[in-house]
Write a structure and sequence with these properties.
The structure is a homodimer.
Chain A: H1 16-38, H2 58-75, H3 85-90, H4 113-133, H5 145-168, E1 195-198, E2 201-205, E3 223-227, E4 230-233, H6 239-247, H7 259-268, E5 276-279, E6 282-286, E7 291-293, H8 304-318, H9 327-336, E8 367-369, E9 375-377, E10 384-390, E11 415-419, E12 436-439, E13 446-447, E14 451-452, H10 468-478, H11 488-499, E15 505-509, H12 515-521, E16 526-531, H13 534-546, E17 548-556, E18 559-566, H14 567-570, E19 579-583, E20 596-602, H15 611-615, E21 622-632, E22 650-651, E23 657-658, H16 660-668, E24 672-685, E25 690-703
Helix pairs in contact in A: 1-4, 1-5, 2-4, 2-5, 11-12
Chain lengths: ~700, ~700
């Protein structure tokens, strides 16, 4: 196969101009490769089909990676003009299957494929220009504006792989052969698997900020673990090896599945791996765009639940305990065979980066040699390898502000790390220190290998929110009160409800961790909570779905106190069905958020990048006699809102002081009547001894 | 003259390694040039003499520029080990003649010159190594660790000039000729001055952060002004031209002097410029190290008060109003003659950077041509030119955290800008955008030229504190109370006093804006207030010296409220004589701060870079039965204190939670008895609606 895919660029270098050139080439290579992935779809009609009920139609993904650039550039104030506000709201979010993704596509009028293709061209031109003109010094650091460009490129690299998985999940009649993604043509019987010994080791994971490659936030920090020596399978588990489990009715053997696995079986009624097709009692195999005879020596594609089930099956068979490898054990294997990281990595040595095949290949094709001379296969490439380790933050983890929901929502002990990359991986995905994790029932180009180790299975950690800012808000909304000031979520919801004429549907905009959304549901038929940050709405969603929130309150220095609040304690059991939580941008809300009797915007307007975008059209989302409640301490700051967009807190050209309330009255006067104002205090705990004590102003506006 | 002095380096470039080399060479050139300046002193004994009663002895300045590197590197946590803690406390501060400089040198045992010379070598080696090893990317930005090195170099460049002034002020028998600073040998009669017309212009001052040269914080930001056309003198005012004023008894003509000027005359009894010497009725002239016949065509060296007096004298003579140029008018002249900035600047074209002379030279030697073809002399170089503009912050000004008292204390409407640089200027001083300002009675290598303009004289602005953080503290200590919480400075002083056995001398360590220092003086015979930041102690000193504090309280966004509190309102008139304010580092206090009956450390320990350095020896500064009061909310954070130096707020190796109070008890147990603890709230206003509400812990310790 020709070389389709370039490696990620190095962050350091000597010449600014040649670095711009490298970034430009890497960007174009990525953008074009992504479009080639969509050439697998048979025709434009297929763009409106979904490969799975829980995912968006293909047109969403086609627009999404371009929109991502624009939304991040806007949010980081690198550009100030949108290219297409409508596209940039409907293509904005929706990748991992989280409850707050808005998957009800019927609510949108999806645009034409040609319109999206034209939009992609505009984005390509803009990003290309930015690459040549943004301020740039070397090495490129997280604070650099160019980092946002690299983020957009690496984000698209991820979607290259996940889109290929979605395409592979579509009916065959929706896809067509592509010259760029030709499957491997070799297969024979499966080799018999063996176990190799890996020495004990002190493993250190995580990179520091001086690392020479772009990294997602979850890669930075420090993690140390001593691992005992262990045995590992020489090959990835092949279709042939897995066949014994299927033939032994493994999918029906309850002993092989844990609770999450049994739930998966119940929902899907699965009896074999998803890319196997049973025809006339014989298993055939689905590649990206064709159906072929079962390649017994290729790795089996499974989710983590199926991989774990196989391990339990094999443990029962052999009377020895098999497990998936841990993150640290995998690194020990990686270190044993001394793989060089990008840029010294040799893509010829493994099935990845589209160098060899547009599919998996035999598990005994790409060999690596350990220090003691053993041969092990597919340490990287072919298919990802599920691990038994849930992704967790390394010590020193810091959220990258431009993409604060990349990692944090996955630190929930439910997202398992996948290791080693696949034939469809490229960019950051094939680098040594990248860390990707998915829910265990999720399909990727992923299989597994097994280990025998004395080291323990991973125990689920207590799921306390490790995100300091989110925890602070959890304490604010669900924790104790201080200095005699009432819980703010409760008081705002009570005040807002008292002014509402009708109590059908309410919107809690800037809902943060969701307490006021529940409180409003005591009075309203349904309440939608929206926040810009998935990190925040995840808390409300968890209270609704799992019945509790748990968080760590900072007390002194690094010392914290763990707290857990259940839906029963809160008395919200009966309200869960009435609330829903969504990620959204108040300055560019999706069109379907409308028809409200109450919109409550709490501590929001002084945090928006352009509050006028919110205020100028919010009336259209309210029903007749609808009520708008705005609560804010008017803490304008340039880090949130460029000065030109402030509503108050400055002196105008005539030298008159402009206060926020004056501007609100001017802007809202045509459409609203101001019916009530009051001060309302709130207290946010930072540590056991330090608090923010704020007096917000509540203004209540009735739609004319 | 050989080329003694290199230009400042450019911040950008292509090769990291050659940039390191450039910085190294510039550093060595500066460090060595500074040592050559001290070769002007006749022998080692002279190092212990002062050139003026208000300044330190020379040995201080000799050590100071080296110590500056170490103190800044320590404070910015770039290095963690001091070279010589004693030197680094006694050589730490004292340049501008501020009341909080500690000038009572008798209190120190100054080290030997050879010891300081050896110390300078150690610093040179360390800084040289850092230049080759610190992380470096181009362009070098304010956040870069290398910026601190550049700051140290440019700081030394300033002292090259100011030390040469001090040497020139010493008796002739204390100095000797230097090959490096040979005076000009040309002089004749003074040319007759003329006026040239400069066109009206829209002037824009200030640079942005992408500027290619190192800048002090006061250079960044934006300032725009339209200036009308004006007339300006062709030459700097020469000794010959100024002679008419002296001969007309101008120094005794009250009409020529304003209030500040008359006070200057009263104190100094001056009758002629300070570098003139009257012998047998004839004026002679003092160069750096010799006395010569009056060079009538060289510029007169005067302070701003003398320059203003001359303008008033000439206005009376001619019936036209002469003034000093404003900062913007000076830039108009600079732009008219199209001078290139460093690195394209041509040092041959003016008397500066030690290229031509170690003294002034005739005012008609270095000519510049305006756009309309007029010839004007000494637009830059020869002597600095006093302006009528007090130095002010440009819009967008931000303090550089590593040197927060470089500019802010001079934004007091009393420091006048000097423009254009002198024969002894180099480094940043000769760049286009640098801004230096001195009190009007201060001598530098400065003279003046005059203008006739319709534009107004500068009116003194109301002196409200423009430093946001300092203003916040002023409001905290001198402003209103909120949420019913008592003024914290008053309550801590009351509690501390109530436990003191003897009431001789007290120390208010971390005194901030000084309110508690005054409060303690109600009970104690004398109280010393010390803070790390000159920006803060300046407020207490102003209350003592000028009888008021004035500050701007942030209300909403950029809107502020001005407040002024007088010593009469506070009832502190009788206390002024008992308090004094000093800049000091609690982790490396000067030896003379001792003999206290009370040491109060308020909200200090969790802000120190190494609190153990403070705690381990503080008992030595207390008298028998002395009391130590520590007040803190224990808000440990890595930006102030590296984690390894925290006293609490972490888990130790055995997994036990360590709280600050436990550590305080352990550390202080041998020398102190804990006699009281209590919680004490305080509230700091951030805006009209946002407050910090904190509960500090007060612990009272009695010396055993």
């Amino acid at each position: 196969m020709s070389k389709l895919s370039k490696y990620s660029i190095l962050l350091d270098g000597k010449s600014i101009e040649s670095k711009r050139q490298e970034i430009q080439e890497y960007f174009h290579n990525t953008f074009e490769l992504y479009e080639r992935v969509f050439e697998v779809l048979r025709d434009n009609d297929v763009f409106y089909e979904k490969s799975e009920i829980t995912r968006h139609p293909m047109i969403f993904y086609f627009g999404h990676t371009a929109t991502f650039f624009i939304n991040k550039l806007i949010n980081m104030k690198i550009i100030s003009e949108r290219i297409n506000p409508n596209f940039e709201s409907i293509f904005a979010v929706g990748v991992d299957e989280m409850s707050w993704d808005d998957m009800d596509s019927a609510r949108y009028n999806w645009p034409k494929v040609e319109e999206v293709r034209e939009y992609r061209k505009q984005v390509k031109t803009l990003v290309g220009e930015l690459i040549m003109t943004l301020p740039l010094s070397l090495p490129i650091s997280e604070e650099s504006e160019m980092w946002i460009i690299l983020m957009g490129i690496e984000h698209e690299r991820i979607h290259i792989e996940t889109s290929l998985v979605l395409h592979r999940q579509m009916p065959l009649e929706f896809v067509k052969d592509s010259l760029y993604f030709q499957p491997c043509s070799q297969s024979s019987s499966a080799p018999k698997n063996e176990l190799l010994e890996i020495n004990s080791a002190d493993i250190e994971l995580g990179v520091d900020k001086s690392h020479k490659l772009y990294g997602w936030d979850n890669e930075y920090g420090v993690y140390k673990e001593h691992i005992n020596s262990f045995k590992v399978s020489k090959y990835l588990v092949s279709n042939g090896e897995f066949m014994a489990f299927v033939n032994a009715d493994g999918y029906k053997n309850e002993e092989c599945w844990d609770e999450e696995g049994r739930k998966f079986l119940e929902i899907t009624q699965a009896e074999h791996p998803t890319f196997w097709i049973k025809k006339d009692g014989v298993y055939r195999y689905r590649t990206l765009s064709s159906e072929i005879d079962m390649p017994l020596d290729w790795p089996v594609d499974v989710n983590a639940l199926e991989a774990e089930a196989y391990c339990r099956y094999k443990s029962l068979q052999d009377g020895v305990k098999y497990q998936l490898p841990s993150e640290a054990e995998y690194r020990a294997i990686y270190d044993e065979v001394k793989i060089e990281d990008i840029p010294d990595f040799d893509e010829r040595s493994a099935n990845l980066n589209f160098y060899h095949y547009g599919s998996s290949c035999p598990v005994n094709e790409f060999s690596f040699v350990t220090q003691k001379g053993d041969t092990i296969y597919d340490v990287v490439g072919n298919v990802w390898q599920w691990s038994r380790t849930p992704i967790r933050a390394f010590e020193g983890f810091e959220v990258h502000e431009a993409y604060d929901d990349f990692s944090v929502p996955t630190f929930d002990e439910k997202h398992a790390l996948i290791l080693g990359s696949s034939w469809a991986s490229s960019g950051n995905l094939i680098t040594k220190n990248s860390r990707y994790a998915f829910r265990k029932h999720f399909y990727q180009n992923a299989g597994f290998r097994y280990v025998i180790t004395e080291d323990k299975e991973e125990n689920l950690a207590d799921i306390y929110e490790s995100d300091a800012l989110v925890s602070q808000y959890c304490e604010f909304q669900y924790g104790e009160t201080h200095f005699g000031v009432e819980n703010f979520a409760i008081s705002t919801a009570r005040i807002a409800s008292s002014f509402a004429t009708n109590k059908g549907k309410a919107l809690d905009l800037g809902c943060a961790t969701g307490r006021a959304t529940f409180e409003l549901a005591k009075e309203f038929d349904s309440v939608e909570g929206i926040d810009f940050s998935v990190r925040f709405v995840g808390v409300g969603a968890k209270l609704k779905d799992e019945g509790y929130v748990a968080f760590s309150v900072k007390e002194e220095g690094l010392l914290t106190q763990n707290k857990k609040v259940t839906i029963e304690e809160l008395g919200y059991e009966s309200l869960s069905a009435k609330v829903s939580f969504w990620q959204g941008d108040a300055c560019n809300l999706k069109p379907n958020f409308k028809g409200y009797d109450l919109i409550m915007a709490t501590n929001l307007i002084d945090r928006l990048y352009n509050p006028r975008l919110f205020l100028d059209t919010i009336d259209e989302r309210l029903n007749e006699h609808g009520i708008l409640v705005i609560t804010s301490p008017y803490t304008w700051q340039e880090s949130s809102t460029a000065k030109e967009f402030w509503l108050g807190g400055f002196t105008d050209e005539e030298g008159t002081e402009v206060h926020t309330l004056d501007t609100l009255q001017k802007v809202l006067a045509d459409k609203f009547e101001l019916i009530h104002t009051q001060d309302l205090e709130f207290v946010i705990k930072e540590t056991a001894r330090k608090y923010q004590h704020t007096i917000s102003e509540v203004t209540v506006w009735k739609k004319k």
